[in-house]
Design a protein that fits this description.
The protein has 14 helices and 26 strands. It has 500 residues and is α/β, with parallel strands linked by helices. The strands form six sheets. Strands 19, 20, 21, 22, 23, 24, 25 and 26 form an eight-stranded mixed β-sheet that branches. It has a six-stranded mixed β-sheet with strand order 4-1-5-9-8-6, sandwiched between helices. The termini are far apart. The mean pLDDT is 92.
């Protein structure tokens, strides 16, 4: 042919074939080539409390969700996967499963969430082979087990999703890629400014999930929930902030490096939203996604006051707020407190009905603020507008917070409060009607309030902010919001100005 001469070296050893390469091989008259076999990984989910989720869950049961995640990660690392059914927590059943799994190149056992479960994994590894490591200096992920059985790698993963993800990414993926003769994965990293302090243990290398947004040309790194089982926060995170061993963490405002889950291009055209929580934030993102824009809002639920402080320090684009002033207006006194001398915009998102959420049937017959004395509750965090409102109503009735059981017990969202109420964990909570309806709670109305995005006036020139305002004014948004109940969308998208 024009470009292929006999005896030419077409491709070197260890070459990874692309679709174009296949055409070149055929054009050269080569019908077959010798390639490496993909390594096979056996994946064994275990636990008496772990179920498939096909039937109605009983109390104490947990849906098995880890194998789907680990299988996808293994496939991306060039491996094939043999999935086992869920194995009960008996030594005999687990040993039998491991012996069968040894037909594969690597054996992965996923522990359940029961206490002492990783000890059983290490016992089996010791009996069948050589236990190399029981416990590694990663957080979350410390209970991992590493062994060699019949010359094959055996790794016991923690059952909690985030812990398992970290161990799989740090230990299993490099092993699979090496066996598949693939190069090391080169994860993209960026540097940015930390918006909240991160405190860490000296004894472990800790992986903190973060969200990232670009504000005024600088990346802002916001830490997320650090629970080992919080899989939703893992799915929503943009990367890991890795705190090395022998470090106590990082200070707010410090420059840190983050290892990304996604490509950098996904992080730029997004609005960083820090402040009060509301369900409409997720609705807004969903409507933007339907327009092909992805998740435009990167939200962190820290309460109205903390959000306004973050906005003042130029750490976010928008601060959702609903702070009631002594004059009966929302957010104006807070603007005087934080933004004297500044030109600000107040974007109306929705009107909301705030009230008392109680279990279905209202078993304690709560009708007003006066009825809350001696009752148990879960409160919102300090600085949240809902907590400010509750404190105002208690003071108005002459009730001390000490008379409310659980006043210091906190949750960071309306849905978290409503869930605790619906499950009967507490007698009541204060929150919005939409959250009460979502969790099937009864609702005693207290007041209407304005939920607004606070922004610097200059931010109205940002294209994504203009698109957000148009979305709030749209009929599709108003229809969706009104369908949730407990909201008023008549003036959604209206903008007021504050000149301090």
């Amino acid at each position: 042919g024009e470009d292929i001469i006999q005896k030419d070296l077409i491709f070197t050893a260890e070459h990874i074939f692309s679709p174009v390469d296949l055409s070149v091989l055929l054009a050269s008259g080569i019908q077959k080539v010798e390639v490496y076999k993909k390594p096979e990984m056996a994946l064994i989910p275990t636990g008496d409390e772990i179920v498939s989720g096909e039937n109605q869950l009983e109390k104490g049961e947990i849906i098995e969700s880890n194998t789907a995640m680990f299988e996808a990660m293994a496939l991306s690392a060039g491996a094939r996967v043999k999935r086992f059914p869920i194995i009960n927590d008996t030594k005999e059943a687990l040993i039998e499963a491991v012996k069968e799994a040894l037909e594969s190149d690597i054996v992965i056992m996923i522990a359940g969430s029961s206490a002492g479960r990783d000890d059983l994994t290490s016992t089996i590894a010791s009996e069948l082979g050589e236990l190399l490591v029981h416990g590694i200096a990663l957080r979350p992920g410390k209970p991992a087990v590493i062994a060699s059985i019949e010359g094959k790698p055996f790794i016991g993963l923690p059952g909690y999703p985030v812990a398992g993800h970290i161990v799989f990414e740090e230990i299993v993926v490099p092993l699979l890629r090496k066996k598949a003769h693939l190069p090391e994965e080169n994860k993209e990293k960026i540097k940015g400014t930390l918006t909240r302090r991160v405190i860490s243990s000296l004894s472990n290398q800790e992986y903190v999930r973060v969200r990232i947004g670009s504000v005024n040309g600088s990346y802002r790194i916001t830490p997320m929930d650090r629970g080992a089982g919080a899989s939703l926060s893992l799915a929503r995170s943009d990367g890991y902030l890795i705190v090395p061993r022998n470090s106590e963490g990082f200070l707010r405002g410090e420059e840190v490096e983050v290892r990304l889950h996604h490509k950098l291009q996904h992080l730029v055209e997004r609005l960083v939203v820090t402040g009060s929580h509301d369900m409409v934030l997720d609705l807004i993102n969903d409507l933007f996604a339907q327009q092909g824009k992805g998740s435009v809002l990167i939200s962190s639920h820290v309460g109205s006051l903390a959000g306004l402080q973050s906005l003042k320090e130029k750490e976010c684009h928008l601060a959702p707020s609903h702070l009631l002033g002594t004059d009966g207006r929302y957010n104006y006194e807070a603007m005087d407190l934080f933004f004297k001398g500044e030109s600000m915009a107040m974007i109306h998102v929705v009107g909301r009905r705030q009230g008392i959420m109680v279990p279905k049937g209202n078993p304690k017959n709560i009708q007003s603020i006066k009825d809350l004395v001696g009752k148990t509750m879960i409160n919102r965090q300090r600085g949240a507008g809902t907590r400010v409102l509750f404190d105002y109503l208690l003071e108005k009735e002459g009730i001390s917070p000490e008379d409310i059981l659980g006043y210091e017990q906190e949750a960071t969202s309306h849905l978290a409060v409503a869930l605790a109420v619906s499950q009967g964990d507490v007698d009541f909570g204060i929150g919005i009607e939409a959250a009460a309806k979502t969790m099937n709670c009864d609702f005693i109305y207290l007041t209407d309030e304005a939920y607004e995005f606070i922004a610097y006036k200059e931010s109205l020139d940002i294209p994504e902010v203009r698109e957000l305002i148009e979305l709030l004014k749209s009929e599709v948004f108003k229809k969706k919001v009104d369908g949730l109940g407990g909201y008023d969308s008549k003036i959604s998208g209206n903008v007021k100005f504050y000149e301090g």
